[in-house]
Amino acid sequence: MTVLTEIDHIAIAVHDLEAAIAYYRDTFDCEVTHREVVEHDGVEEALLKVADSYIQLLTPTRDDSPVAKSLATRGEGLHHVGYRVADCAAALARVQAEGHRVIDEVPRPGSRGTTVAFLHPKSAFGTLIELVQE
C-alpha cells in the first residue's frame, strides 16, 4: 500500500505575504482559497488552490518561528513539501520504524483542521516533509 496519496501543498516562505499573494493572483490568476494564522507554528498562511493541491505561502508572525529562522538563513523560497496520507500516525510510525529522523514525535493539529507531522530534512535528502491527513 502506498503511504503518500498525493501532493497536498508546496510551501513557500516569504517576507511579504501580501506581495506574494498579489504576484500569484496577477501572474497566474490564482486566488486565495484559505487564509489562517497558525499560532503553534508562528506563521500566517495563504493557500492558493491549484488542481487538487495548494501553493502555501508562509510568513512568520514571530521572530522565533521556524519560518522566520529559515528566512533569516536561506531567504525566501521553497520551505517544505506537504504530502497527503490516509493515516498520519501510521505514516509517521513507519518513518520512525525505518530509523529516520522526525521533527514531530506524534501527529499534531495543522491548518484547515488537518493532522500533520514533519520529517527532518536530514533523513529526506535535504527536503523538509510534512505528512498531511485531511
Describe this structure in a few short sentences.
It is built from 3 helices and 8 strands; from the N terminus they run βαβββαβαβββ.
Structure characterization notes:
With 134 residues, the chain is an alpha+beta fold. The protein is 23% helix and 40% strand. It is built from 3 helices and 8 strands; from the N terminus they run βαβββαβαβββ. It has helices at residues 17-28, 66-74, 88-97, and strands at 4-13, 32-38, 43-50, 53-60, 77-85, 108-109, 115-119, 129-133. It has an 8-stranded mixed sheet with strand order 2-3-4-1-5-8-7-6. The mean pLDDT is 97.
Number of helices: 3
Stretches where pLDDT is under 50 for at least 5 consecutive residues are none
Average residue-wise pLDDT: 97
Measured between the Cα atoms of the first and last residue, the distance is 18 Å
Structural class: alpha+beta
- Rg value: 15 Å
Helix content: 10-25%
Query: What's the overall geometry?
Result: globular
SSE string, helix = H, strand = E?
Answer: EHEEEHEHEEE
Can you summarize the main beta sheet?
8 strands, mixed
What is the number of E strands? 8
How much strand? 35-45%
Identify the strand order in the major beta sheet.
2-3-4-1-5-8-7-6
